[in-house]
Design a protein that fits this description.
Shape: globular
Low-confidence stretches: 113-122
Mean pLDDT: 84
Number of domains: 1
Largest sheet: 4 strands, mixed
Order of helices and strands: HEEEHEH
CATH class: Alpha Beta
Length: about 120
């Protein structure tokens, strides 16, 4: 039997910080990590209301310039979230906002609707 302590963590240290801040920023909500939008697209976090409707999807990005494959993946993800009318919050991993700032950022994001491209927050 494998030692539980040796098991790999689901979230890296930066993701753990963001998860904690999302939980504190959205009390009464459900915060899920690594949510599959499709077989090939996974969002880092989803913040759900208590009735399991989606409040927002949250993606961690690096300051490094994304590769072509990464940009294509991001475009597919944005299109899928846009079609579902889900807010998308992109955060820089090296500069995670405070609990209060996260709440304000999500509140400020427009709800995606047909013909209205989603904006990125950083």
């Amino acid at each position: 039997m494998r030692d539980v302590a040796a098991a790999k963590c689901l979230l890296n240290p930066i993701e753990q910080v963001l998860y904690g801040r999302l939980v504190r920023a959205f009390p009464g909500h459900i915060v899920l990590a690594r949510v599959a939008l499709s077989r090939q697209l996974v969002v880092d976090f989803a913040v759900l209301r208590s009735d399991f409707t989606v409040l927002a999807a949250v993606e961690l990005c690096s300051r490094a310039k994304p590769r072509i494959a990464q940009r294509e993946r991001e475009a597919r993800m944005e299109a899928a979230l846009h079609a579902a009318r889900v807010k998308l919050l992109r955060l820089v991993a090296e500069d995670i906002p405070s609990d209060a700032a996260l709440k304000a950022l999500v509140a400020a994001l427009p709800l995606a609707s047909a013909g209205t491209p989603m904006r990125r927050a950083s």
